[in-house]
Amino acid sequence: MSLIKFNNFSFRYKGNEEYALNNINLEINENSFILLLGETGSGKTSLIRCLNGLIPQFYAGYYKGSVEIAGKSTITTPISDLSTVVGIVFQNPENQLVAMNVEHEIAFGMENLGISPREIEKRIKEVIKLTEIEHLLERAPFEISGGEKQRVAIASVLVLEPLLLILDEPTANLDPFFAKKIITMLKKIQETKKISVIISEHRMDLLIPLVDDIILMENGKLVGYDDKNVIMNSEIFHKLNINKPKIYTLFKGLEYGSTYFNKLPLSVEDALNFFRQFN
Ligand SMILES: Nc1ncnc2c1ncn2[C@@H]1O[C@H](COP(=O)(O)OP(=O)(O)O)[C@@H](O)[C@H]1O
Ligand SMILES: [Mg+2]
Prior knowledge:
alpha/beta, Rossmann fold, 4-stranded antiparallel β-sheet, 10 strands, globular, binds adenosine-5'-diphosphate, binds magnesium ion
């Protein structure tokens, strides 16, 4: 049984004529770090909203087809039940932070699920270490920095031990230092917990070397889901109107100068290895 399964799923927001999601068929791999890419308005956030039942349960509109999360239909299963399988951190984490201090914030979801106090304590200990927020437990969520809020939001979702963790542009409001910190942390979490992580993000230079797979969206359609090497060597990726990673642009330029690449280098390390052969 796959973690997530879209079957010919389409969705149109009430009042819109166009479908935000158009006949999506998708099964998400387990234990992988996945980048969700597409131009603004291509349907990335809408796709994410399907992954915990917000679409179609919360957002008014019209849908066709079905989405299953760990075998449960997102049409009929309460969103609270789905939240133990899929954890989502949206773009503005402050909207997700509700408690008086960080410790309560992290415990909140577990208390709602009736998890025992001893188990709550154990999970908090583990998750604050992973997200490096041990020193923030007593602080109020509104008085910490943007990068810290983001880590608290990730911690509060992670304690519910989801099989899939999803982040919608988590570093959009962060400076490059904190963006890198969050992204490297997510990679560590993915590897330690062996869960799948899906991240919608523009900072391609940081992410491409770390991810396994890429999902491509264009105009409400899913136009690719494969290993990053396959996607980044494809014509469809090349034509997409998004900021490409610097290494990609550099080596694509060399390719136009008729240097042949079996496989484009995607990290600084791979690029250096390419140049070393001429040494
Ligand atoms: N809450 C909403 N109500 C109506 N239309 C929406 C809503 N959210 C997104 N849309 C529309 O759905 C389409 C896809 O948007 P979105 O999923 O936000 O794309 P992305 O995250 O890739 O920028 C766009 O045309 C957008 O205007
Ligand atoms: Mg979006």
